[in-house]
Task: structure prediction
Amino acid sequence: MNNVKVEPFKVIGISVRTTNENEQAAKDIPVLWEKMIKEDIQNKIPNKIDNTIYSIYTDYEKDHTKPYTTVLGCKVDSLDHIPDGMAGYSFDGGNYIQFTTKGDLSKGLIINEWLKIWEMDLGRVFTTDFEVYGEKAQNPSDAEVDILIAVK
Result:
């Protein structure tokens, strides 16, 4: 767990409005990932900075128990051209706590880390939280993923 400062950034990708209530997000988010992979969204994003995929949680209605938007996309240097069916987002950055989780993505690695985070008193601000799937996440059975939580 590290305190980090995140600079403002822009993302283009696909999104879904979901909630953790009744395990709805456990249904919606895998469908979004499936679309990302099947439709090769990552390679259709214009002006992207690199191939890192960001799974972003934003537009929280209140906190993690209420509806929010999940965005899967890549950082871009411009929102000038957003392809049909995709959305562009601009995030302010700020103070974050970074968690790094390592292991098998198919064995609940990410949700298990979130279950721990939800129990912690971190001083969350519920603006924009995100996961980073970079080079170290390419091997799903031995992945390393950073989870960044916005705090005061």
